[in-house]
Amino acid sequence: MKGKKDLEQGLYYRCGFHVQVINLENAARHFNKAIEAGNPTACVYLASMIRDGLGGYVKSETEAEKLCIKARELDIIKLAINGDSFAQSGLACMCFWGYGVPQDHVQGLDWYRKAHQQKHPFGGYSLGMMYYHGKGVERDLKKAFIYLRESAETGLSQAEYALGIMYLNGEGTEQDIAEGVNWITKSANQNDSDACYELGTIYRFRSGYTNSVVAFEWFMKAAKQNHPGAFCHLGLMYDEAIGTSRNIQKAIEYYKKASEYNIVYAQSNLGNIYLSGDGVEKNVSEAIYWLKKAALQNDIFSQYTIGEIYTLGEHTEKNSKVALTWLFACIVDPNIIQDEKY
Fold this sequence. Notes:
The protein is mainly alpha-helical and 342 residues long. The chain is built from 19 helices and no strands.
């Protein structure tokens, strides 16, 4: 198959196989080289990254669909029918997304089964996730666990993470916190951003594991891969000197990164930092800007704070009408305000 070596290298970097550590930029580079050689499956694998905004790409379903159409034009269907497991896994994705082919979850599941029969690394993982979410099949956590365990044992980082979560929650198996942490750690050590983030929350909050310094380190690793939740946690940890020394400028930096993903907690905290002037020059206009972003997502605390600002009129003009509107939203109906005109 044309470009097969680059396709495989891209997959290894995408999932952590052989090279051990996920490197999304390298994965994208190899997939692009495979596409240049005329490999249809590489089109789909790159499309999955663009669909999720990974590897330095801007998130775009339109561009992802274009790549899947190209995969069809490069005869991915013929390759799948002829038994190529990579093509079968790629075509399964296309069926689930409805890109390049009609959307058909049942057909997609069938192609994943065919890929799994040939030991394709994504086959078992994808089947496990289908059974976990009940897509194309009736939800069955025990089957999901079996497929994910099988896939995780091959070293697929996504499967290791998913299996760890099932152990943590006791889904499809008896709850085993230690085993869950073990599998999530395996995935995190391969640089899986969700696993790094999950370890951050485990060491930050879970009884028996709490260690703020270790939590900070894992959140930082997740943040380096642009994990939105990690940005927010780092902002708070810098803000309140948890697991690190207090650094209000760093707190603002990470809160702003989290705010780009419309994380309410980050927007609200930014507003309160500028309102209080704690460690930064007080700026009520800037405070209102960020508080409104949180308030328009129905954060009642931000709605109340804006109401209070306009009631007291400190460093801004008093406005009883605006104040009452925000306070009414906070107490009676958070959905009453739909735009920033107030």
